[in-house]
Amino acid sequence: MAWILSIMTYSEFVKLVVCVSLDTVEYLVPFLLQPIIGDMLDIIGLVACLYFFRWLGLFAVLELVPGLDVLPINTLAWLLWFIINHREDFSYGLIRP
């Protein structure tokens, strides 16, 4: 796990864990795919993304679109946020230490 924290800060790692856990809870608990309960979890994920990622969290609005529950939207929002925040680290395809 130390190599993960070498390319990101601890707070970025915590945000990733929250986003991945929100996505996996949706997949592992089948009754959360029901319309009312699933939408409440989608709204919780949307609020978490807006809190963590500010305006980039609006990407999580896709979670409310019917049929897109199979995509890990929260994790994709984290990935988008991480790439935008570290775009200078990804220049020329290399991550600087």
Outline of the structure:
The chain is 59% helix and 0% strand. Helix 2 (10-28) runs antiparallel to helix 4 (73-85).
Structure in words:
- The chain is mainly alpha-helical and 97 residues long.
- 59% of the residues lie in helices and 0% in strands.
- Helix 2 runs antiparallel to helix 3.
- The model has no long low-confidence stretch (mean pLDDT 82).
Q: Average pLDDT, to the nearest integer?
A: 82
State the separation between the terminal residues, measured CA to CA: 16 Å
Order of helices and strands: HHHH
Shape: elongated
What is the strand tally? 0
Percent of sequence in beta strands: under 5%
Percent helix, as a range, is: 55-70%
Q: Strand pairing plus helix content: what structural class?
A: mainly alpha
Radius of gyration: 15 Å
How many helices? 4
User: What composes the largest sheet?
Assistant: none
Task: Pick out its properties.
elongated, 97 residues
Give the SSE layout:
Layout (H helix, E strand, L loop, with lengths): L1 H6 L2 H19 L6 H19 L19 H13 L12
